[in-house]
Amino acid sequence: MAQMNMKEAIRDAMRVELERDPNVIIFGEDVGNVGGVFRVTEGLQKDFGEDRVMDTPLAESAIGGMAVGLGIQGFRPIAEIQFVGFIFEALDQILVQAARLRYRSGGRYNAPIVFRTPFGGGVKAAELHTDSLEGLIAQTPGIKLVIPSNPYDAKGLLISAIRDNDPVFFMEHLNLYHAFRDEVPEGEYTVELGKANIVREGSDVTIIAYGMMVHTAVKAADELEKNGVKAEVIDLRTLAPLDIDTIVASVKKTNRVIIVQEAQKSAGIAAEIIAQINEKAILHLEAPVLRITPPDTVYPFAQIEDQWLPSPARIIEGVNKVLEF
């Protein structure tokens, strides 16, 4: 085992797949000699050459279009979008072309592409750099959506994503790149796409989260336990497809649910989970399912983002509401 932070684990996953499969290639803005704006791809161009790890112009639509073309020709592209807020220029290529390719061609072609992009708040970044835009992806059939919360999962999920024959949108929280180190196996291993992880067992309430919010939820659960409340924390890991079976099993055990997301409240992952819980497990609920989210506003400027983002205190307040209902 090696000690890695999330950035190093993601880089190691790409290194494993570059060595294993000559059809894996990486491209994006400054991913080559510079190693990306966060140095996630640092050293890969030196080790694998400019034909395997290459810089592109500052044109997200071109990055997306090249990924689709290469995917059709048998390559496995890893296309980096430098920040999630820049995906709007590439949504046609990602969601209209890549996500629909298998359907449009009657299975003749597929798009084994990974679109990597950093996102997430708490780092005082500039506008469009931190927005949580996973809802745009999750609503589109034909593309998988992955958001890891720790280095071990990040490496295993990324390897699975690269080997998948359908496009995968892989979001990496900025605040987790250097947050902590974890034991990560050297060499290859996979974490199954579409499978959530129960990171903390509990019996009184279920807290569902993903990405950075998993750690916020665990902090809240630690505080709740001091008052005798045992919270179960589920890390979704993959948001599309959603592991509703794990969620329903937890609902049947705890009978109360809180969902935490960093994206704005309306039309997000939390709303979809609530709808599916209502369809599959409403008779097991002892209280309405609550969402702990930011308000429906534009992502705020850095001076007030800490007040805008969900916090352990807000999660605890929500848990107390469902317990007292």
Number of strands: 14
- Tally the helices: 12
Strands side by side in the biggest sheet = 3-2-4-5-7-6-12
Low-confidence stretches: none
**Share of β-strand residues:** 15-25%
Structure characterization notes:
The chain is 37% helix and 18% strand. The radius of gyration is 20 Å and the shape is globular. The protein starts with a strand and ends with a helix. The longest helix has 15 residues. It has a seven-stranded mixed beta sheet with strand order 3-2-4-5-7-6-12, sandwiched between helices. Strands 9-11-10-13-14 form a five-stranded mixed beta sheet, with helices on both faces. The protein has 325 residues and is an alpha/beta fold. The chain has twelve helices and 14 strands.
Summarize the structure.
This protein has 325 residues and is an alpha/beta fold. The chain has helices spanning 6-20, 44-48, 60-72, 91-98, 101-104, 134-138, 151-163, 212-226, 244-254, 269-281, 305-308, 312-324, and strands at residues 2-4, 24-28, 53-55, 76-80, 114-119, 144-146, 168-173, 182-184, 197-200, 205-209, 231-235, 238-240, 257-260, 290-292. The strands form 3 sheets. The protein has a 7-stranded mixed beta sheet with strand order 3-2-4-5-7-6-12, with helices on both faces. The protein has a 5-stranded mixed beta sheet with strand order 9-11-10-13-14, with helices on both faces. The protein has a two-stranded antiparallel sheet with strand order 1-8.
